[in-house]
Amino acid sequence: MKKSGIPLLLGFIFLVVIGIQGAPIMRNVRCSCISTSQRTIHLKSLKYLKQFAPSPACEKTEIIAIMRNGDQTCLNPDSADVKELMNQWEKQISQKKKQKKGRKHQKSKKVLKVKKPQHHRQKKTT
User: Fold this and answer.
1) What pTM was computed for the model?
2) Residues annotated as region Disordered (predicted)?
3) Domain of 46, in residue numbers
4) Are 28 and 62 in contact, with CB atoms under 8 Å apart?
5) What is the count of structural domains for the chain?
C-alpha cells in the first residue's frame, strides 16, 4: 500500500467510527410503569409531571408524577382525575411561561445619580 493510501484509509475509518457513535439507541426496552396508582395527587405537592406517548418500546401512554419529596408515581392516563390534574398542570406551566416573558419585556428603570460638583472655598486672605 502506498503512503498516500494510508491517510485515506484512516480518514474512512474515522468517519465510520463517528457514524456509529451517533446512531440512536432506544431509551427503554420496556414500559416504565408496571402498575398505576389510584391515589389522589394534589397540584401543590407535585414537582414535575412527565407524559410519554406510545412508542415501539411501550405501546401505552405513560404519565409519571414526580413529587416534591422525591417520590415517583405512575398515573392512569384514562382516569378523569389524572386528566384534570394534567389540565391544571399545563395551565400552571403556561402561566409561569407568561410571567417569565413579562419579566423579560419589562424595561428596568435605572436612576442615574448625578453628583453635584463640590466647590472648594478658598479662604480670603486679607
Assistant:
1) 0.55
2) 92-126
3) 28-101
4) no
5) 1
